[in-house]
Design brief:
disordered N terminus, 4 strands, globular, about 65% helix, about 525 residues
């Protein structure tokens, strides 16, 4: 008996739905994905088209609770289309590639495949943050969204910029994790902002170093232009290939290689810094050196000295500039990912790198730099090193691109390991950092990836902190005559990068495991980054 009463109630409910559905005469779109209320259909199985409008709707939607419609008593029973419209975008079936079209800017496409409110800013699109009150994506605005994480991040970025100035490095291995952890930026937002800060600091470093002479050999510039001329093309080629391998590799592999690479780099830098400190201490004791009376002075570029030094290094400087301009043109007119134009440009880039390396080798040979004996603190050019050094720079660039930390953080310790003096390595590494970061920043600006307010705020602090860092390191070098401070600063930046980048990598690996993401290589990401 209870069964017949239940069946009668279902027929009565279907009849009321049928009457309300008659208010709307629009046909059901054939291309719409259909999802049905299986219980009613299994019990009654009506064949009428009108009833199909009750149990199907225009766009696929998963059930998302029981919303309350306050005005329903005023308008009577609503049609299904009206209910779906009032329900909003939450619950719509979506995929990552059509998130913006289906969910709009306010909501995000969850891993379950439906539109929902955001839980963290990284889920929102570029230049959007997750509002903690409404849990919807809102445009980023540094002033109105200023909280304690922004204060802490600014302070840590200032400290990093000062250490980076002493090391001659960019600091991107620290900037990016700070932006990810404290500001909740996505990688697509953090990298352009980090590059802007790096190029700001590198510009200040170059303003200081371009007008300075090699402390041990005053006839030579502090920046070794021959090294930059020979190694920068290989470094750029290595970074390009490394980034491609990064896209197709699983996160666990990247994190493992990152930890091993930076651990070895840290160990080498720390040992060399401590060894230099010990030698300097012994020398001070033997010679009974006292600390000199030195005042703080703000160092800026000496244009007269730069022009004088540039005249004797004109050909290397022109080759460096020409290589940079070629990379810039290719970056500006970069073709779509994986298109025929893209692969042709990639091949052209590698050919250009090889051509500039050969031109640099010819310049080294013509200048008579090939010799078995060179002044202390400078790299030796021989028939072996003239091809081995570019190959090593390409390897450093590959690791920098593959690990997402840039080539400068590996080039600095590598130059020290090869025998370059700390002060020359500091200036030469700063030149490498400027060349790569300026290209990346220009490309991000052209792609409208920069967040103006964030860029102005953080880059201004980096500019000031870099200048202060240069003043302090210059003061300590003159007063205490300890170049080991530069090497120890490099070790500090490498160590901080290792810890923070490893934490970020482990977090991503855990997230991949939880969402059961593929843990192998995938060429799909190469064409759909």
């Amino acid at each position: 008996m209870l069964f017949f009463f239940t069946l009668a109630a279902l027929f009565a409910q279907a009849s009321s739905f049928k009457a309300s559905a008659a208010k709307t005469n629009a046909p059901v779109p054939k291309e719409g994905r259909l999802r049905k209320t299986s219980f009613i259909e299994d019990v009654i199985s009506p064949a009428s088209e009108e009833f199909r409008r009750i149990i199907h709707w225009e766009r696929a939607r998963r059930w998302w609770g029981f919303p309350s419609y306050a005005t329903e008593h005023e308008h009577g029973m609503r049609t299904w289309d009206e209910l779906a419209e009032a329900h909003g975008k939450i619950g719509l079936v979506c995929e990552q590639h059509n998130q913006l079209e289906i969910c709009g800017q306010q909501y995000v496409c969850k891993q379950s495949g439906v539109c929902d409110k955001c839980s963290m800013s990284r889920e929102c699109g570029d230049k959007f943050a997750c509002d903690s009150w409404s849990h919807t994506c809102i445009p980023r605005d540094l002033a109105s969204q200023w909280h304690w994480p922004e204060v802490v991040a600014t302070g840590l970025i200032v400290i990093t910029a000062m250490l980076s100035a002493a090391a001659g490095m960019g600091g991107g291995g620290v900037y990016v994790p700070l932006l990810l952890l404290f500001l909740g930026l996505s990688a697509q937002e953090a990298v352009p902002l980090s590059q802007a800060m790096i190029v700001g600091g590198a510009t200040v470093n170059l303003m200081v170093f371009t007008g300075e002479r090699n402390p041990a050999h005053p006839s030579r510039p502090r920046i070794d232009y021959d090294i930059v001329m020979m190694l920068n093309p290989g470094l750029a080629a290595g970074v390009t290939v490394g980034v491609m391998c990064n896209l197709i590799s699983p996160q666990w592999l990247i994190t493992a290689v990152l930890l091993v690479t930076l651990a070895i780099t840290l160990q080498k830098s720390m040992n060399k810094g401590l060894s230099e400190w010990k030698k300097e201490s012994e020398a001070r004791e033997k010679q009974k050196l006292n600390t000199a009376d030195v005042k703080f002075t703000v160092k800026l570029g000496d244009m007269r000295t730069f022009v004088e030094l540039a005249q004797t290094n004109l050909r290397p400087i022109l080759l460096i500039l020409g290589c940079w301009l070629c990379f810039l043109v290719i970056s500006i007119f970069k073709g779509p990912q994986c298109s025929t134009l893209y692969w042709l440009q990639l091949a052209a880039l590698l050919v250009i790198c090889g051509a500039f390396t050969l031109a640099g080798a010819k310049t080294v040979i013509e200048n008579g730099a090939l010799s078995d004996s060179v002044p202390e603190g400078m790299l030796k050019w021989t028939p072996t090193t003239i091809w081995m050094y570019p190959l090593m720079s390409a390897t450093a660039g590959f690791l920098g691109g593959f690990l997402g930390i840039g080539g400068g953080i590996i080039m600095g310790p590598m130059l020290l390991e090869l025998g370059m003096s700390a002060q020359v390595s500091q200036a030469t590494t700063a030149m490498f950092v400027f060349l790569s970061s300026s290209l990346a920043t220009i490309q991000f600006v052209l792609l409208d990836k920069a967040m103006v307010d964030h860029t102005i705020w953080f880059t201004s602090w980096v500019l000031a902190a870099t200048l202060i860092g240069q003043v302090f390191i210059d003061y300590f070098l003159k007063k205490y005559q300890r170049t080991s401070l530069i090497v120890l600063s490099i070790a500090a930046i490498v160590g901080a990068s290792m810890v923070m980048m490893t934490c970020i990598g482990l977090r991503d690996v855990i997230a991949d495991i939880r969402r059961e993401a593929p843990m192998g290589f995938s060429t799909f990401r190469l064409c759909h980054p």
